[in-house]
Design goal:
24 helices; 502 residues; mainly alpha; 5% strand; five-stranded mixed sheet; 2 domains
Length: 502
């Protein structure tokens, strides 16, 4: 076959078309507010701010540092860090998917082109609004490990350089969120059960990842002690108690559809569900489903790795059933695919852009300093980025106040109430301290919490806000109000009559 013929083969065109679609989506879809916030942490860090002191994020340091290379490029070139990070992840994700495919293609000789297309779709297209989230980054880092795990399940040798590379990348994933260790361990638990050999859990790449995680924990404890001192008490008192009840998580759409898809897959292919490729991918998917359940938030992006791994496993697994000519195998195979794809509807919430306040802010002040008095981080991010501003707050929002007040309404224990009230007072002090920096813009949430009333309730907050005047309001559409707060932007009064600051 000629070179042109090879280029235009359908099994070549399909992966190329998927990558083109991924790039097109990223050009149209804004980056998620969580990423904007974490990039703001990186910018402040490069400016000399102390993490977990001057700017506080609830996730461990690596959740911030994965965005640091893009932020450094921004400083060197002027290119927006969010765009740089997106471009980096497109490249790294494609390479990771290709590496995974190269590791396992010989184990699925009749369907390896479907497998390549599946993994590219799962990693590059399926994330949609979850693209660049910590879960997405973790999956990209773990794909090489899963390729090696599949080779181990098939009793196929693995070169040592690839073991070291995959183990080192996998070690970074649980540094981002410790929960992700479940996604590392699950495939090796599957292999151990399949072989009935507990020593399969001690594969060198898995051990390297575990050693790296332990070393990272020691380094954080030594060099960034503020995380344990400042953040862990917040997590214990205000974050973990906000988890949904376990039964509510288990009967939600995502676990139910995952279970339905897994059952239909088993009916369609029976014992082949324990073949190396399908078995490892489904085990890893189950591990990440457990990660979502343990986190107890039911947020869409928490489910992404479980969905992506299932979307990678199912197409190559069901192809024999679809071509077998046996209807009783085709129906559950199709049902498995439909149930897996149903999750993608949860990744289509493409965020809030602060459109009602961005243009008025830009018209008055260039590169503003911004802080937020609102429940969610969403008003502040992406508004800070959209106005080419700098975040001036210590926290992403007043989530401490909102969570503490919610929990206060649900407890009568005197000791518990005293601790929660202390957190409310603490957050008030942080807000007033940030207001004393005289940021150009203060974003005040419009509900459901009464933030204007919260401002008026404290004499110092009220006095500090007297230096600000309303500039613009974004009340959102009815659909947006189901997910986000409306926001009113207040501007420092001395900037109103002054010319736009260069």
């Amino acid at each position: 076959m000629s070179f042109a013929g090879r280029i235009f083969k359908i099994d070549t065109l399909l992966p190329v078309a998927i990558l083109a679609l991924a790039v097109a989506i990223r050009l149209m879809v804004p980056i998620d507010a969580n990423i904007d916030w974490l990039v703001s942490n990186c910018r402040r860090f490069l400016d000399g701010a102390r993490l977990y002191k001057d700017i506080v994020e609830t996730n461990p340091p690596m959740a911030i540092f994965i965005y640091l290379p893009a932020t450094v490029v921004e400083r060197l070139t002027g290119w927006p860090a969010e765009g740089v990070f997106t471009a980096m992840l497109l490249v790294v994700g494609t390479v990771s998917a290709w590496f995974f495919h190269r590791m396992v293609r010989g184990l699925v000789p009749d369907t390896h082109n479907i497998l390549l297309a599946s993994v590219l779709f799962a990693v590059m297209v399926a994330p949609l609004s979850a693209f660049g989230e910590r879960e997405h980054v973790a999956l990209v880092l773990l794909l090489p490990l899963y390729g090696i795990a599949i080779r181990r399940a098939a009793a196929t040798p693995v070169p040592w350089p690839l073991i070291v590379l995959a183990g080192a990348l996998a070690g970074i994933a649980p540094m981002i969120k410790p929960y992700f260790a479940l996604g590392v361990a699950a495939p090796y638990l599957f292999i151990a059960l399949k072989r009935r050999n507990v020593f399969a859990l001690l594969a060198p790449e898995a051990m390297l990842a575990a050693v790296m995680l332990g070393a990272y924990a020691l380094l954080v404890a030594h060099f960034i002690p503020a995380y344990a001192k400042e953040v862990v008490p917040l997590l214990v008192d205000l974050y973990q108690p906000m988890r949904l009840p376990l039964n509510e998580v288990l009967i939600s759409f995502k676990p139910i559809m995952w279970t339905l898809s897994a059952i239909c897959l088993y009916i369609a292919i029976r014992r082949h569900v324990f073949d190396p490729v399908t078995g490892v991918l489904m085990a890893a998917s189950a591990g990440f489903l457990l990660v979502m359940i343990v986190q107890g938030r039911n947020w869409p992006y928490h489910a992404y790795p479980a969905v992506a791994l299932m979307l990678t496993a199912i197409p190559q697994a069901i192809l024999p059933a679809l071509t077998s000519g046996v209807p009783k195998r085709r129906v559950p195979a199709i049902a498995a695919a439909i149930a897996a794809c149903a999750h993608l509807s949860y990744f289509t919430g493409f965020g809030y852009g602060g459109g009602g306040v961005v243009a008025p802010i830009r018209a008055v002040v260039k590169h503003p300093t911004v802080m937020s008095i609102s429940f969610d981080l969403t008003p502040g991010h992406p508004i800070t980025t959209e106005t080419q501003g700098t975040w001036a707050g210590t926290y992403s929002s007043r989530w401490i106040t909102a969570n503490a007040n919610y929990l206060l309404r649900r407890t009568s224990d005197p000791a518990r109430r005293a601790k929660l009230k202390a957190w409310v007072a603490y957050d008030r002090g942080v807000a007033n301290r940030d207001l004393k920096k005289h940021p150009d813009i203060v974003l005040v949430g419009l509900g459901p919490f009464n933030w204007p009333g919260w401002i008026d309730a404290d004499p110092e907050t009220r006095r500090l806000m007297q230096d600000y005047a309303p500039l613009a309001r974004d009340t959102l559409t009815p659909a947006q109000r189901q997910r986000y707060e409306g926001v009113e932007a207040f501007i420092r009064k001395d900037l109103i009559a002054a010319p736009a600051r260069p």
